[in-house]
Design goal:
five-stranded antiparallel β-sheet; 34% strand; alpha+beta; OB fold (Dihydrolipoamide Acetyltransferase, E2P)
Length: 146
């Protein structure tokens, strides 16, 4: 695949043109990736107060006791969306699901400990840890290039 970028100072809006002899799965995936738009904020609640949470501020999102929580450096917030809805809205290059009940921000991870048999321990800068469930270990290893 050849990629060409032309810079034109008179251009008002970015335009992407794909030249191909046929539509392939690769072309369809490319079109989907280019056209994906991720909302950059979410509404989080702490008590009756509403807070705007930027994606970059979210460390992890998890479900517990029938609720969904987002953890940031400023504390924990309740979200009104379900995990699968959040997973669809979050940038897949930055956020990854590690279990049926948790999504993490890869840019906020301090490290991964692979010494545990059958799972991966994820540590964050605030010294909290969580674990990748066995079902998601292969996916995480692929993302990490292992």
């Amino acid at each position: 695949m050849n990629v060409e970028i032309k810079i034109d100072s008179s251009c008002q809006d970015t335009k992407v043109v794909i030249y191909t002899d046929r539509i392939t799965d690769e072309i369809n995936m490319l079109v989907q990736k280019i056209s994906e738009e991720y909302p950059s904020v979410h509404s989080g609640f702490r008590g009756e107060r509403l807070a705007v949470l930027e994606h970059g501020d979210i460390i992890r999102i998890y479900a517990a006791a029938g609720k969904v929580f987002a953890v940031t450096d400023n504390g924990e917030f309740t979200l009104r969306l379900r995990l699968y809805e959040l997973e669809e809205r979050l940038d897949k290059r930055q956020f990854v699901r590690i279990s049926n009940s948790e999504i993490i921000n890869l840019k906020k991870v301090k490290g991964f400990d692979l010494s545990f048999t059958g799972t991966i321990c994820v540590s964050f800068p605030d010294n909290t840890v969580t674990y990748v469930s066995r079902r998601y270990v292969t996916k995480i290893k692929r993302i990490l290039g292992l």
